Amino acid sequence: MIQLPALALEKRAARKLKDWQAEVNALASYAARVQAGKQRFKSRNTKRNATFNHVKDVLSQMCQGARRCSYCEDSVADEVEHIMPKDLYPEGVFEWDNYLYACGPCNGPKNSEFAVLAGAPRKLVTVTRPDGAPVTSPQAGSPALINPRTEDPLHFLFLDLLNTFAFDVRNAPAVTDDDRLRADYTLRVLHLNDRDYLVKARRTAFGTYRARLGEYVTQKQNGAAQAILDRHRDELLEVGHQTVWREMQRQQAMYPVLKALFDAAPEALAW
Residue 143: which of 83, 70, 72 has the closest Cα? Predict the structure, then answer.
């Protein structure tokens, strides 16, 4: 899970979303807004809708590599995901900043699962609406799920590059108690450690990144032209699971093999 680049929609598409959201917001009751938001999103999120085709195109550009899921970084992203679920927050059903591109294995289990931090001391409160429950507004609070559109997940999370290749809650002075609650919740609701193929893919990505950085260093030491070095850099940055690369940059001083590579190519710390 990595922070997404901030890209904007074309003005025409942005206006369309704003107008559609205004239609939902104008309805008198919360329940009516929920129902209308779900129905109108379903009817407009189609291949025949030019606005949503553009939305998906920009969301694709925000994905890493070959349109990888914005949550797990592994599977192909093919579903417009509402970070704050439309079943709970109809005011975000057509909000551009509430969208990312996700895969079915992430979007399916997450669905309308959501929690907020509320109270004093702050506690995690699940606001998911059970089937058949009255359609009422969720309890107020700040979102618990880490939002890769606006936040850097690596502020909250730490990826073990030595043994497990699993995420853990980051232990650092800048990480608050609220941050720890949010990190733990995000890992659980997205199952980022529970799927063994994700852990295996991160381990494989680590080996690939290390090998490609080694190739770059060898070419640099042999006096390769800048164009060749740039090609090696660009190919490295197309490798999947970019969180692994970010953690290699952040943790390189902890591992002699990585430190030697980054010492030989310090520019790679800024890629």
Answer: 83
* Strand-pair category, 123-126 with 79-82: unpaired
In sequence order, the 6+-apart residues with CB closer than 8 A to the CB of 224 are none
Question: What H or E segment, with its residue span, contains residue 99?
Answer: strand 99-102
Residues 75 and 105 sit within 8 Å (Cβ to Cβ): yes
Contact (CB, 8 A) for 126 and 98: no
Q: Is residue 165 left, alpha or beta, with left meaning phi > 0 and alpha meaning psi from -120 to 50?
A: left
Q: Is the pTM of this model over 0.85?
A: yes
What number of other Cβ atoms are within 10 A of residue 7's Cβ?
10
DSSP state of 115: E
94 secondary structure, DSSP code: T
What separation in angstroms does the CA of 26 have from each of 31, 56, 95, 149? 12, 26, 15, 27
pLDDT tens digit string along 209-248?
Answer: 999 999 999 999 999 999 999 999 999 999 999 999 999 9
Which among 141, 144, 140, 126 has a CA at the least distance from the CA of 183? 144
Scanning 100-195, the segments in alpha helix (DSSP H) are: 104-110, 153-156, 177-190
